[in-house]
Amino acid sequence: MRERVLIALGGNAMTAADGSASPEDQRRAVEKAMAHVEALLADGHQVILTHGNGPQVGNLLLKNQLAADVVPPVPLDWCGAQTQATIGTLMLNALPGRAAVVVTRTLVDPADPAFADPVKPIGRYFTQREARRFERLGQTWREFERGWRRVVASPEPREILDAAAVSALMDQGFVVVAAGGGGVPVTRAPDGSLRGVEAVIDKDLAAALLARAVRATVLVIATDVPCAFAGYGTPQARPLHRVAPAELRALHTAGHFAGGSMGPKVEAALRFVEYGGARAVIAALDDLGAALTGAAGTVVTRT
Ligand code: ADP
Ligand code: MG
Description:
By secondary structure, the chain is α/β, with parallel strands linked by helices. It has helices at residues 23-42, 54-66, 76-94, 128-135, 163-171, 203-213, 245-253, 262-274, 288-293; strands spanning 4-9, 46-51, 99-102, 105-107, 120-126, 140-144, 147-152, 159-160, 175-178, 184-188, 194-196, 218-223, 229-230, 238-239, 242-243, 279-284, 298-301. It folds into two domains: 4-108 and 157-301, Acetylglutamate kinase-like (Carbamate kinase); 118-152, no CATH class. An eight-stranded mixed β-sheet has the order 3-9-2-1-12-16-17-15, sandwiched between helices.
């Protein structure tokens, strides 16, 4: 069966195995990931791609900070837009045939409670002294075990504003890369105007929303583990293969999936199926083909 599949690519599709993100590392990782995508295209499937951008945004933030006395630092939403373009370009170069990148904005609610309590760490660790300097510029920094790190809000994605452009390109036969890094976060003022905000959006939650908007039949979340596990990291770890939404929801509520890593993937898979999507799969990037047919990964289907 010909599927319309949205593939969310994690960090391992864009950086070396050790997380290193030099331009060469990124190009190599993207080429490897696109080879897997090419196999799906050869089978006649329609593909929409989205991706994370954590290490890339981290690098841009560091450059901003180091050069702050020379060039005005740009806001976080600009950094997000820049990474959509660079990562998207690497993907275009590695994809066969017609492909396009859509700079994608994701609407968030300015009243989202996440803005009052920013918890998502971004960029590198700094000393307390440096952290204080950036706090004076209006940023929020927190102390972690390894040092001080900037934290920003990670609000709920409400709407993928450029989804119609993605659909139009898809209908013309393009492989579309969209909503990279969860999309550029924007808020809408009462007068209707849009404005970028200093926040990051979880790429898996945005992927679920985009998959729904473009009427994807399958959402595949490609990462660096073969599937989601119950009791991950314990001697009782149990791989989850076929799992009913209610059972997965119960495991999620019981805290089996770490926040910021597997948690949002499970949430995204559940939401996509709850929205009416046929199937969501969390799988290793190397198992992409088998994940699409439901032969590999954690497979969530409507019941
Ligand atoms: P990506 O960059 O692909 O988005 P993440 O690092 O955010 O990947 O999430 C994948 C990671 O989630 C795995 O490498 C694993 O260490 C971690 N993880 C946390 N809880 C679980 C779980 N219950 N089952 C499987 N992996 C888990
Ligand atoms: Mg990762």
